[in-house]
Amino acid sequence: MRADRVEVVRVADPFVEKTTVRAFPRLLGSGRAVAEIEALLAGATRLCDVSPEAVDQIAKRHGIDLDRRLAGPRRSLYRRFLEHCLVDCALSPEENVDLAHLQRLLRLDDTDAAQLHDEVAQAVYGRAVGEVLCDQQLDLEERNFLERIRADLALPEQVSADIYEKGAAQSRERYLLRAH
């Protein structure tokens, strides 16, 4: 990126903007509802700009009870946004607010949201471990980096230790394969 060019990243970037539902003629009611909800999220500058009523209207139009249906797609939308937020391995206060709002919009309970956070946080930490160990060495700066990420992701020490051990074993295997 050139120094004089400013790149604007919208909060809703992980969502796919679908201009009309007619563009997806094979989608049935529930698929169309998910496509419309995703388009609504994609068009938002901030997720807090999306009202629960707008999501409810989409569900109602398609005869969908969001509390009882579409659990997988709702979880998928939440996961995608969480992964987008954790690209930098940390959640900003604004991202936390948007995640809480998205959780309400998608009617995910705290258990679902916590499970998704744990899954995504562990994957993010695992990628960081893989990057740090690509040279088969862990210096003090890299150790501090991993500890900061662990704390930012709110990973329990035992979980992060297990991920580190698995990453170290995989890194050794790759190293030995290259050396062979």
What does this structure look like?
Helix 1 (29-42) runs antiparallel to helix 2 (52-61), helix 3 packs antiparallel against helix 4 (93-105) and helix 5 packs parallel to helix 7. The longest helix is centred in the last third of the chain and has 23 residues, at 110-132. The chain has seven helices and no strands. Mean pLDDT is 85; it is low at 1-9 and 19-27. It is 62% helix and 0% strand. The protein has helices at 29-42, 52-61, 71-85, 93-105, 110-132, 140-152, 157-179. It has 180 residues and is mainly alpha-helical. The radius of gyration is 20 Å and the shape is elongated.
Q: What is the CA-CA span between the terminal residues?
A: 38 Å
The assigned structural class equals mainly alpha
**N to C succession of SSEs:** HHHHHHH
Question: How would the global form be characterised?
Answer: elongated
Q: Percentage of helical residues?
A: 55-70%
Per DSSP, the total helix count is 7
- Mean pLDDT, to the nearest integer, reads 85
Q: What proportion strand?
A: under 5%
- How is the biggest beta sheet arranged? none
CA radius of gyration is 20 Å
Number of strands: 0
Poorly predicted ranges: 1-9, 19-27
Structure characteristics:
180 residues, mainly alpha, disordered N terminus
Short description:
Helix content is 62%, strand content 0%. By secondary structure, the chain is an all-alpha fold. It has helices at 29-42, 52-61, 71-85, 93-105, 110-132, 140-152, 157-179.
